[in-house]
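Same chain as my last thread, 378 residues:
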Amino acid sequence: MVSAFLLGGHYDSRRYCSIKDASARHGRAISASHARLARRWVSRLGVCAQVMYYRLANEIGRVAVEPGDLVSGDLDGVVIVPKQVGAEVITQALKKAAGDNPVRKEIEVVCPAPQPLKNMESSEPMNAPFRTDGEVAIITGGATGLGLGMARCLVESGAKVVLVGRREEELKNAVARLGPAASHVRHDVTEHDKATGLIEAATRAAGAPPSILINNAGVHLKKPAVETSPDEFLSVLNTHVIGAHALTRAVLPGMIARKNGSVIFIASMASLFGIPNVIAYSAAKSAYVGIVRTLASEVSADNVRINAIAPGWIDSQMMRTALDGDPARRDKILGRTPMGRFGDADDIGWAAVYLCSPAAKFVTGVVLPVDGGASIGF
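reply #2:
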């Protein structure tokens, strides 16, 4: 029960503590200026830290109070004093605010305690929040470079990995290095009509359906825009964008049904700022930003999280190819990278582990730069 003082009018005790309702039915009870004065007088009485003042003009007219609190106010404002302050204090404050002869009615109002929001409830304690035990990850382009680095870190964190690529020998060598938690499926991501078959083959190889998909496969084309043909442009998009969409489209129904999934797109610095001579690659990687946000808005309610990693300049064969014979570009990259060095594949790998782990259970729709500060450097 709540002891409530309203200046003027009266209040229907069968309703909730809604100052808006009371004012609408019985006229204004106490002006906003009077409510502020009441607060000031309570402050002078030494209980300022325990008094809350609410403006309700642009808010829902319902005040959250605890049983035993003292309430005074109207449509424009309300003063709430916790019960431990005492009725005498608020009575004195209201008299000072409204004059010596206010029409005051003391009432009892039923105010159930507000229900806590679900997301505010304590989470179950996590013993190993950065582990991925029991997860199965498909990694395209997983036999070399960043893909292999991510596979290595996921295996170390407890996941099974299924490496996907076009070159059988590279896949076998990578699996041998990773150990029994790894397997592989040969597949070309540009064969879009075979995406569902890949998911089925990966499920057989790992012994369980995939809960993680990392869209990492890609090609690089370094050419000025005026020299890039439409066919070359489309070839890059076909691998990065259409290929990634086809696999994501094939894997999502199972993740949604199981209410568990994480999809990562490997974006780029070219997703974040302009880089010359990579028009097709930049377009493909920039597309990932929109894809991540749209997919996250569609499937996150089913506990399927969609994120991207934007690697900076990571020491890999692709980066070496891109910088080959271009020392000025190399110096420019390092000059704008606050950490003053290139990254390595494990930097991306551990970022992927984080995004796939329980530690990131409330992270979705994010493009995470892992770049030594390059995207904010000068």
